[in-house]
Specification:
With about 625 residues, this protein is an alpha/beta fold. The protein is built from 13 helices and 29 strands. Strand 3, helix 3 and strand 4 form a beta-alpha-beta unit. Helix 1 runs parallel beside helix 2. About 40% of the residues are buried.
Length: about 625
């Protein structure tokens, strides 16, 4: 089958910095997204243009891409700096910008592709169609969409669709949360979210009665769609995005490797889809998402609404489930399935008060005889207060941490080498799977070998020594008429020069995709409220040119009073079993409120849309 008939799939990994970006590429990412020095939605994850250029040069060798997140809203006095930065990002070789602010489309831009950030609130066919016609090459879909909704969007649009498959979840629709800005002046849309959704709250009724006490009622579990990649692919997703631009390299290694293996299993022998980069990745460890930071796991709304998407006990990482405590002694305890444990591991559990408690294992003793069952005796460094039946999780695996700190993967590009004789000497021809080819000819005196039987093997042995390069010889074809003598140093030098020339040609042939062409199109509505996040004159001009005749300032410019601070598909009533759409008749004294210290929020429920809206309340 012609390779052009395949549909590209992309594993997109996060990069807090250059180290993380290189780790992502080495562990099989087809693309990496990284923040620049300013204007990224993770203000604590900025990077220099020099580091971005180093990353792009490395990624492009594997035909992997680098996207730079410039996805905050801008104010007028930042527009010039943002435009200058964008030109710097383009010159650094980046493949695309991830943006939220539509004012960027009115700048004097270099020819770089634009991706619409999930913060542009991409939930409908109409919105995605508009972004496609406005000049975007890709849309990052809202995390709340179901498979059916994704399929519907794909069936009515032609743009590339990207979706998150792993990592932390914002409880609010992205780009539609103003709680942090309202409460402490730190805007989520400007990369400074204070994470009010991770705090503990009391749930009160209208009379002040406590319905739920000190639970993390807005803190969602982490997303894990690793068992649904094929369905998402069939629904129209081409890019599978791992969240985590604040995570360290060990997280990036583990989670990227995990999804690379999952996707490769789907793609193996597949005649419809192929991965968008090149290079075979070999792993020297077994990836396991439970060994990296995560707040348990949920498929969120991909397979429609269901209970259990939030983690009320703690916003922290629980880790991997181990087993129950079966006996408690004076300085030790016994537990099930503890054969997984190592000295120095970190364990945690939810105590009777509902709080997360952690401790370190000082020593582990295993049963003396196999017939004694699957239990171990654990001696903590400090004995925690817990009871028989407590369920333990491991949130730090000493052996795994040591393993993943070392070399955990190797990514190689297969090449075919032909070594042949010509009239003046010899010639090396190198070809890769993309059809890129170089010929390196050398003039050399031909001397008969004394040990003719070893000549072919000697040539193959020297030409295959590619360990310090990104290449691996898949096939070496020797075409000589006589067994000539070749010093090892001579063959090594010819191989080195030929590989340098081949590398140079591959680098020259990489071309970034051109940006999409904008068409005349109107925005789906003629009025924009504060939810449009218009915070500068260029964004206002953009929307007016696309048929919007009434535009309110963004919340960061003018904080409207009495408006919703958060819009979420997560519903506390539903999670508590109080959903009226499910026929529940519990008489609640509404409105309901969330309270944390002296801050109180009113909950309003739009049951027609199955949404919960949160307002500031005195």
């Amino acid at each position: 089958m012609n390779i052009e008939k395949y549909i590209n799939t992309e594993l997109l990994s996060p990069a807090k910095n250059l180290e993380c970006g290189l780790a992502a590429i080495n562990h099989g990412a087809d693309a990496v997204y990284i923040g620049a020095s300013q204007f990224g939605a993770r203000a604590a994850a900025g990077n220099s243009l020099e580091d971005i250029e180093t990353l792009t040069n490395y990624a492009h060798r594997y035909r992997a891409k680098v996207f730079v997140a410039l996805n905050t809203v801008l104010i007028d006095n930042q527009l010039a700096d943002a435009e200058k930065l964008i030109h710097g990002i383009y010159n650094a070789g980046a493949d695309a910008l991830i943006v939220q602010d539509m004012g960027i489309l009115k700048m004097n831009l270099p020819p770089i592709s634009l991706h619409a950030s999930t913060q542009t609130d991409n939930r409908t066919v109409e919105k995605v169609n508009f972004l496609q016609n406005a000049g975007f090459s890709r849309v990052v879909l809202a995390r709340e969409l179901t498979l059916q909704q994704i399929t519907e969007i794909k069936s009515q649009t032609d743009i590339e669709l990207e979706a998150f498959v792993h990592g932390a979840l914002c409880v609010s629709y992205s780009g539609q949360c103003y709680m942090s800005q309202a409460m402490c002046g730190r805007s989520a849309n400007r990369g400074q979210c204070a994470q009010y959704c991770r705090l503990p709250y009391q749930l009160l009724d209208s009379e002040g009665n406590i319905l739920v006490k000190n639970k993390h009622l807005l803190s969602l579990k982490d997303l894990d769609l690793s068992e649904h990649l094929k369905e998402m692919m069939q629904a129209g997703i081409m890019s599978f995005k791992i969240e985590g631009r604040l995570k360290d390299a060990d997280y990036v290694k583990n989670i990227t490797a995990y999804y690379r293996k999952k996707l490769d299993n789907i793609l193996e022998g597949n005649t419809t889809y192929k991965k968008s980069s090149v290079g075979k990745t070999t792993f020297f460890f077994e990836p396991n998402p439970e060994k990296s930071f995560r707040r348990s796991a949920t498929d969120y709304f991909l397979n429609e609404r269901h209970k259990g998407i939030y983690q009320p006990e703690t916003p922290k990482s629980l880790g991997e489930p181990i087993g129950k405590v079966t006996y408690i002694g004076r300085s030790f305890f016994k537990m099930q399935n503890g054969q997984l444990l190592n000295n120095g591991d970190g364990l945690c559990f939810i105590n009777k008060q509902g709080d997360l408690t952690g401790f370190r294992v000082n020593r582990v003793e295993f049963p003396a005889h196999k017939g004694e069952g699957l239990w171990v005796r654990c001696f903590p460094a400090d004995m925690p207060r817990m009871e028989v039946g407590a369920f333990l999780y491991r949130n730090q695996d000493q052996a795994f941490d040591k393993l993943i700190a070392g070399k955990t993967a190797e990514r190689k590009i297969y090449i075919d080498i032909i070594f042949k004789e010509n009239e003046k000497g010899f010639e090396l021809e190198i070809t890769d799977a993309e059809g890129i080819r170089i010929k390196y000819a050398v003039e050399a005196e031909k001397q008969p070998a004394q040990k003719s039987e070893a000549v072919i093997e000697n040539i193959k042995n020297q030409l295959s020594k590619l360990g310090s390069t990104i290449y691996e010889a898949r096939d070496i074809d020797i075409q000589i008429r006589s067994p000539w003598f070749f010093p090892a140093s001579q063959l090594s030098e010819w191989r080195r020069v030929a590989i340098e020339q081949f590398d140079s040609k591959r680098n020259e042939t990489y071309k970034c995709e051109l940006p999409a062409i904008a068409k005349n199109t109107n925005f789906p509505t003629q009025k924009l409220t504060y939810l449009g996040n218009v915070t500068n004159k260029l964004a206002e001009t953009f929307y007016k040119e696309h048929g919007v005749n009434e535009i309110q300032c963004g919340f960061e410019i003018k904080a409207e009073e009495g408006v919703a601070l958060m819009f979420t598909k997560h519903c506390i009533k539903y999670e508590m079993g109080w959903c009226p759409r499910e026929g529940k008749t519990l008489e609640l004294k509404e409105p309901l409120f969330l309270k944390n210290n002296d801050q109180r929020y009113e909950l309003r429920f739009d049951c027609n849309k199955c949404e919960m809206h949160i307002f500031a309340s005195k």
